[in-house]
Amino acid sequence: MDFWDICKTTNFFEKILVKVPLFSILYLLFYKKAVETEWEFAGLLTEDKVLFIGGGAIPYSAIILSNKVKHITVIDNDKKSVNLAKKIINYFRINNITINYENGQYVNPKDYDVIFLPLQAQPKNKILANIKSHCHENTKILMRIPKKAFTKFYTPIKDLAIKNYKEKAVNQLTYNKIIMFYPGDIKNE
């Protein structure tokens, strides 16, 4: 199984779960503690505008954080996932999350205070180059780093175009740390 296979599997799994709201809620609960740890680590403020590059059919991180920040935008480059994500957001009656069909390599991130990059967002270094060239210098960027067993599926930290970062341990199935850095910490490609 390679990166694209695991992304397709995750995507397929979420597309099934989203059709049964109870399963979606259980999925959210599975990630709740890790996402709240990320929120605390980032020092998110109520007025922050947050961008998630890649949300899937169940944008669980955005849903979990929706009661903590003013506005969240989630983008994904899979139309079916975007449509399903919009349905689950409506089902939960969340009005401060916007879901858009867009590619992280080309999104304009200049209006955001915090950007989250999940494991599946690829190609990471091209997305990072886009962020570096369009964000203000104080934009916080958070990225999940895969556990060693999952580095064959996701970009390992050693292959990322990042010079400096802070890290925090997180206990989750596929990742064990979150890193935070700023646009100036991204290497020029």
From TrEMBL:
GO terms for molecular function: nicotianamine synthase activity. Pfam families: NAS. GO terms for biological process: nicotianamine biosynthetic process. InterPro entries: Nicotian_synth, SAM-dependent_MTases_sf. This is Nicotianamine synthase protein. It comes from Anaerobranca californiensis DSM 14826.
